[in-house]
Fold this protein.
Amino acid sequence: MATPTFAQPGNATATSAETGAGARLAQMIRQLIITTANNAPRSVQRRIGPSEVGNPCTRALAYKLLDWPEVPGADRDPWASIQGTAVHTWMAELFETRDPNSERYLVEQRVTVRKGITEAADITGSADLYDRQTGTVFDWKVTGTSSLEKYRRNGPGDQYRIQANLYGLGMRNAGEDPKRVAIVFLPRHHILDPFVWVDDFRPDVAEAALTRLDAIRDQILRTDPEANPAAWSDFPTSPDAKCFFCPWRRHDSTDLATGCPGNQTP
C-alpha cells in the first residue's frame, strides 16, 4: 500500500499564507490591532508625561507642548508598545499578588511630578513599582536584543534616566523617601536575561529636565510658531531622537508646520 501524503486544504502550498484568504485575514487582524492600539487612552494622551520630558528632540517637545496635530498615522506600528503594555500588566499583577495590602510595594502608583499653573499643565504619571523597604523606584522596559546589549554597554541614556528620576521626584512629592532608581530592561526575545540599571535618586537630574522643558515653553511663547511657521526651524532635532516612533514625523516634509522629516544632523 502506498504511503498517504499530507496536503494542506485545497492542496495549498507553503507560501499560500502570503496570498488569498490568509493574507486578507492577516491584514484584517493587523489593522484591528493598529486601530485599537492607536486609539487607546495612552496613545491619545494630550498632557506631557514623565516619559516624554527627557526626549532629546526639542522640536518634538514643542509639538507636544502646543498639542500640535499629529501626522495622520493609523499605520504606525504599535506592536512593541502593545508588548510593553502586556508586560507592565503582568508585572503589576505579580507584585499586587505578593503584597495585596501595599505594605511594601506600591504598584502603578499615580504621582504628581510637578503642579502646573492649571491642572492641564500638571506633570503626572504612574510609577511602575516603588519598593518602600529599599526606597527604590522601578521602571520596566521591554526591549529588543540589539538595544538590550547597547544598554548593557552604555547605560540607559538620558531620556530613560530622566524619566526614572522624575518618578522618584513624584514619589517624594507623595510623601515617600526614594533613595534609588532602577530601570529593568526585559528582553523581547524568548530568553529571560534582564539587565537592571541602578543609580541613586538624583532630584537634580529631574529638576534640570523640567528647567529645559520650561525653556522650550518660553521659546514657544516668544517665537509663536503657530502664527510664524518659519519659527519651527528654531526648535532643533537630535541625533538621539527616536524619529521612527515620532507621531509628527513626515519623512518627505518640507513644511515643519505639517510634519518633521526627522533628524537631519550630518
The beta strands are 105-114, 123-131, 136-143, 180-187, 195-200.
